[in-house]
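Task: complex structure prediction.
Instruction: return structure tokens for all chains below.
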Amino acid sequence: MTLSVAQSVPVALEELDLASVHRPADEVRTLSLEDREQKSDWYLKINPNGRLPALIDHSKGDFAIWESSAILLYIAQHFDTERKISYDPVSEPKLYSEQLQWLFFVDGGIAPIVHFMRFAPEEVPYAIKRYRDESIRLISVFEERLKGREWLVGPHFSLADIKSALRAAKLLNVDFNDYPNIKKWLEKVFARPKTDKGLNVPSLWDVEAYVHTAINVSKRPLEVSRAIAAASFGFKKVE
Amino acid sequence: MSSPRVTLYANVSPAAQCVTVALEELDIPYEIKTLSLIDKEQKSDWYLKINPNGRLPTLIDHSKEDFAVWESSAILLYIAQHFDTEHKISYDPVSEPKLYSEQLQWIFFAHGGIAPMYDESTRLFSVLEGRLKDREWLVGPHYSLADIKAFLWIHGAKIIGLNLVDYPNLQKWLGRIVSRPKTDKAMGIPERMDVETFVKKPIEETRAIGAALFGFKKVE
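Output:
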């Protein structure tokens, strides 16, 4: 199981039964992070930011989309016609806006926190403490939001839940027993059979060395963590 | 001056500024309300009801039962969807789906990529520099939300000392943007930010701004 936010894309594809049409084994292309393949010219043409994931839509002249949230919204717009995992901008504009708000919240608010807590090249006790405090605060935002709610936005599972659950589940040093609403919600999200299937689609990372799980991460050799950080965020390793 | 369709809670920051730029570019009547960051007004109960994250900016749409929108990028997209019917500063998801998607991609890039990670900024500026080679605008044939979102971080970096001499495309693009009269006007609302202004602020206020923007407390 891969708990990376990049995995939100295979989850969405599975939830919409798209993966069975497109044969995931062929379509999920892993890149070698060690060889910095994501910085190669051919990939930079697809994604000038040189990061994963990127989606190529063969039905639209090989149109390339990068940024996981933009991919989710693209998938929803073009393939989720029944609005099973998303909200419609025209018929449900407020819910659509709320969905966007939570997607941006996850991207801007939590992502850098996760990085500093887990992958910063140097250990800076002050920074670690501050980011731990910030992650607790952010988790509290979710806990409060989920009070009396089954899902983050509107009456059903949506892109906001996919993205946020993957982000939230990755946070270290958070005892989810202290946050009953989040705990219940995470269990519901990960119990969905298609979501579970999407989480187990071959990882976008080189599988053997870099499989992410919340449990294994602390046991991973530091050099491997740093290599992932360098690939994820463009940092150079501190020697 | 017609009555405001929207109220914007904002203090001076790149996140808030992109919204005022969009509102000005579209001639939308709005009211701006600043909060006292020193008194942590953004963490008060009444404000947390409309923005559970306790940050700025937040937009209230009076034409839609005071619907609240938070996260600056979500606000930009909301403004574009409901007020930019002629698509002057945005792209249409139905009639221009690829440009709409590209606009989203660059907004997310600017949202998560440039803002919170200072160390990364050099590489990220290079990505923009590359994108702007042979292009006037980040996405499509005209000024859009993607440019609005991204330029303020470059502009802000200039204020704290970034030298754009290595980024000629960025310089030209930035020049194009700040010479637009409505964008220039918006950059004075609520307050024009430049080095002199920032440096003259009392230290408690700059710290409060830093804390509100990024959640940082300054190291003593």
